[in-house]
Every structure is written in structure tokens, then in C-alpha cells.
């Protein structure tokens, strides 16, 4: 299924993707189950990071629970010939966590998506206004999430 | 809402990207932040129980492991939103699913081994719910790097 991974790598991902334990040697159980050393588990995780199979290894934050409740999907209607240029400018804003170009669809004119997470809607609006200023794109909307049905992250 | 003291914030801001990949990572983290290993573990245990930390683990690049993903939108009558969301959530491949109070009010992401699997999921969901799904696969990724600046 995952041609870039060997069997052990895949097992390591599956054994860590729901979270490693909060104990002094969190990789010890995995190592003993796989019959390899803890250091090998770690070396393989690092290797997968270098190969961009893993984007990062770290904490996923329950951002709503700590007060980051304004989560705006800012959507932009950008002329096709400007998407490259505008996407690059948007990605340069530190407040933007994700930026994608996606197709338009019937009833949906917006082709660039930029996520902004903050403590208040005003913050998000202020960031969007600065992006609009920097790019000259005036046709945009902020879609806030008000309920989370699921957030597991990508899993194998 | 969870109350975070300055030490909690320091830990959270560090472990999003700077989690040490070592045999004793909490000890290393403690050394870096000037806190004992036991205190790091106790604090993370509490932050996890309270929901500030969902998990510590790998954030997987679906394309990197040989797969693909998409964002899907749907316009669903509000009284049916919960039911439809449940059908969507049943799929292991659905990684995020949110309600946004707009014309298109359900937004979810699917990460799967291949495009065929995504098509199958969308067809099945359409059969189960009768909802028309708008499939918006990534054309170009300009940035991904979720990092919350916790203040």
C-alpha cells in the first residue's frame, strides 16, 4: 500500500500515530514488540522525516480547548493566471497555516484556500484584510468552523 | 477553557515542532526548558487529560507515503447535519470534518491510498445520504505547517 515504506516503518507509524505514551522511555514498548532497538525506532522516524513521509513529529494541539476558537478558512477568487503569484504571497504570511489551490465547482468560485487560526474573529479578519491589500484580491470570504465533527489527522 | 500558565505555554510552543526524537525525549525537553523530567511528564499528562494536547506523534504526509487527499464540501439542511456527519466520520480515511455555517456547511478532508478509494467513499456517501458532494482536490500546495502561537 505504501510503496515508500518498508514493513517496519509502516508498523512504527501505526504504533505511534495515535500518540506515544507519557513515560520516560516512550519508544521502549514499540522497540521490543518489533524486536529492534529504541535507537532504531528513532532513527527510522528521523529518516521518514527527512524523506517527508512524516511532516513533523510532535504534539497536536487541541486549539479550541485552549482558546484558539476563531478558525477561518479564507477562500479567494483569484484569476487563474495569478494563482501562482498570489498563492506564494499568501503562504508568506506567518498567520497562514495552510494554503492550497483547488478547482472551482458549480456554485463555488473560490480557488485559493488559506487557513488562519486565532483567538478572535477580529484577528482573522485583520489578517485577511492585510492579505487582500498585499495581493489585490477583493473577492474573498471567511468561513469559520463552529463545530468539529472529527479531527484525527491523517492515519495509515 | 483550559487555563495555561507560562510553563505550560512554553512546553506547548516547543513540542509542536521541537519535540526531541531521542530515547528519553521528556528528559531532553526538561533539560532544554529547565524543568525536571517528572514535571514535564506530569504537566503533559494534565494537558492531555484536559485536551490541550491531543497526542504526540507523527504528522503523516499522505502524498509522501504514496497516497492522495481531497477537501469535500456539502450543502446539507441543518436538521440533517449530525446524521450526515456521522456517516462521513465512519470512514477511517476522513481526517478532519467541520461544520461551517454557510451555504456549504459541511467540510471534510479525505486522505486515502489512491484516488479510486476517494471516489468509492464519495459514491458510497452519496448513496447512503443522498447528498451531492463537491470534491475539491488539491491542485497545488503552497504551504502546510500548522503551528499555533500560544499566548
TrEMBL record, chain A:
Alphabetized UniProt keyword annotations: Lyase
Species this chain originates from: Methanolobus tindarius DSM 2278
Single annotated GO MF: lyase activity
Domain Siroheme decarboxylase AsnC-like ligand binding: 66-150
Enzyme class of the recorded protein, top EC level: lyase
NCBIfam families in the cross-refs: Siroheme_Dcarb_AhbB (NF040707)
Pathway(s) it belongs to: Porphyrin-containing compound metabolism
E.C. code: 4.1.1.111
Coiled coil: none
Protein name: siroheme decarboxylase
Gene3D superfamilies, per the entry: 3.30.70.3460
Known catalytic reactions: siroheme + 2 H(+) = 12,18-didecarboxysiroheme + 2 CO2
Keyword DNA damage part of the UniProt annotation: no
UniProt keyword annotation of Zinc present: no
Domain Siroheme decarboxylase NirL-like HTH as annotated: residue spans: 9-55
Superkingdom classification of source: Archaea
Pfam family, one: AsnC_trans_reg2
PANTHER family found in the cross-reference section: SIROHEME DECARBOXYLASE NIRL SUBUNIT, TRANSCRIPTIONAL REGULATOR, ASNC FAMILY
Similarity-based family: Belongs to the Ahb/Nir family.
UniProtKB/TrEMBL annotation, chain B:
Pathway: Porphyrin-containing compound metabolism
SMART domains: HTH_ASNC (SM00344)
Assigned keywords, A-Z: Lyase
Catalytic activity from the UniProt record: siroheme + 2 H(+) = 12,18-didecarboxysiroheme + 2 CO2
Pfam families, per the entry: AsnC_trans_reg2, NirdL-like_HTH
Gene Ontology MF term list: lyase activity
Domain Siroheme decarboxylase AsnC-like ligand binding stretches: 66-143
Top enzyme category: lyase
Database matches in InterPro entries: AsnC_trans_reg2, HTH-Siroheme_Decarb, NirdL-like_HTH, Siroheme_Decarboxylase, Tscrpt_reg_AsnC-like, WH-like_DNA-bd_sf, WH_DNA-bd_sf
Residue ranges of every copy of the Siroheme decarboxylase NirL-like HTH domain listed in the record: 8-54
EC numbers, comma separated: 4.1.1.111
Family statement drawn from the similarity comment of this UniProt entry: Belongs to the Ahb/Nir family.
Cited NCBIfam families: Siroheme_Dcarb_AhbA
Stated name of the protein: siroheme decarboxylase
